[in-house]
Structure formats: structure tokens, C-alpha cells
Design a protein that fits this description.
Elements (H helix, E strand, L loop, with lengths): L3 E9 L3 E6 L2 E7 L1 H6 L5 E10 L4 E6 L2 H11 L6 H10 L2 H9 L3 H5 L6 H17 L13 H12 L4 H11 L6 H11 L1
Parallel strand pairs: 3-5
Antiparallel strand pairs: 1-2, 1-4, 2-3, 4-5
Helix pairs in contact: 2-3, 4-6, 7-8, 7-9, 8-9
Length: 191
């Protein structure tokens, strides 16, 4: 397995990149979240997952180890292949998918293109225990007091704000008992 690539970014597109490592160019499929997380630096380190099929060897890339771990969990579910998993990771960040699975939010998972009600329920059933074991670099989103903060962050990101800037703004304004609406209003004043 190819764990990661560390090389020169040759080309960057919303669904793929080309990374040159020691004279070899690797075509790597990526999610939109990874695309937005990759800077314009020439030097890049991207975590990868190699999928070998009869007709192709496909390399998928991720900006974080958590995103790759979520990808691996998603493709372990019957009915979800690598392309569907990439669509899911393009629609929601790994933390949002994990949160939806943990709170059994079928509507959020079903809102992703190509995911029906049965597949959404299967994702929740198959991955509920696995997402509890995942470690995210941000705060633990499963703590009840952070639910409003998470919902506010999701709303701000969907409005087009940069995730890191939105997190900083929320950290400055959020109190443990604030409502989602209050956190968003206060964060918008800073952003």
C-alpha cells in the first residue's frame, strides 16, 4: 500500500491532483474538502489509499489521516464504493459524517447525491461503533456541549466561510450554554 506521497504538486483540479515524486507523476483522485485544504505550495504531502481492481489501480488522496480513515470506513459498507465515498467526503467533512452517524441523522447522510434511505441506514448501522473510535484533530464533537458549536460551524462553512477562521471565531464567542443561533450571530460579527 502507498501510505502517502511527499513531492511536488504539478497539477491541481477539484477532483484530482498530480504529484511528482522522484520523477514519477502520480494521478491522485481527491475530494473537494481535500482540494480546498491543499495550498498552492509546490511541495505537498498527501495521505493515500490504493484501490486495486481487475481493470485499474486507483490512488485516492486525502489532506488528513482522519479523512482517509473515514474513506476506509465508508468503503467497508456494502453498496458504497470509492467514488461514492469521495462524493460523501466532498459533500461533508469527516467530522460532519461522523456526527451524523453518531446521532443517527439519516436525512443528512441521505442528502448526499447517490445515497438512498437504505444505504444511509446501512452506513449508520455499520459505522456507529467505528466512528466512536476515530480521533479527530479538532475538538471531540460527540460531547453534548459541543453540539451547538458543531452545528454553528457547519452553518458558517455552508455559508462559504473558511473552516479554520470560523472555528477561531466560534472559539472566541461561544459559551457552553449558547444556542446555535447566538453563536452564529456573534461569530458573524467577527468574520
Amino acid at each position: 500500500m502507498i501510505h502517502h506521497l511527499n513531492g511536488k504538486l504539478i497539477e491541481k483540479n477539484p477532483t484530482n491532483i498530480i504529484v511528482e515524486c522522484n520523477g514519477v507523476g502520480y494521478f491522485v483522485s481527491i475530494s473537494l474538502n481535500t482540494f480546498s485544504g491543499i495550498g498552492s505550495n509546490e511541495s505537498i504531502k498527501i495521505f493515500t489509499k490504493l484501490i486495486i481492481r481487475e481493470d485499474a489501480h486507483l490512488l485516492y488522496g486525502f489532506a488528513t489521516i482522519e479523512e482517509r480513515q473515514m474513506f476506509e470506513n465508508l468503503i467497508s459498507v456494502s453498496g458504497i464504493g470509492p467514488n461514492t465515498a469521495m462524493i460523501m467526503l466532498s459533500s461533508l467533512v469527516p467530522e460532519e459524517i461522523a456526527h451524523a452517524i453518531q446521532v443517527e441523522d439519516v436525512k443528512t447522510i441521505q442528502s448526499i447525491k447517490g445515497i438512498g434511505a437504505k444505504t444511509a441506514q446501512r452506513v449508520i448501522i455499520d459505522l456507529k461503533d467505528k466512528v466512536l473510535k476515530m480521533n479527530f484533530s479538532s475538538e471531540n464533537i460527540f460531547v453534548q456541549s459541543n453540539t451547538n458549536r458543531f452545528d454553528a460551524l457547519t452553518a458558517l462553512v455552508s455559508l462559504g466561510f473558511d473552516k479554520k477562521n470560523a472555528e477561531k471565531a466560534i472559539d472566541k464567542v461561544a459559551q457552553s450554554d449558547d444556542s446555535v443561533e447566538k453563536i452564529i450571530k456573534e461569530a458573524l460579527k467577527i468574520l
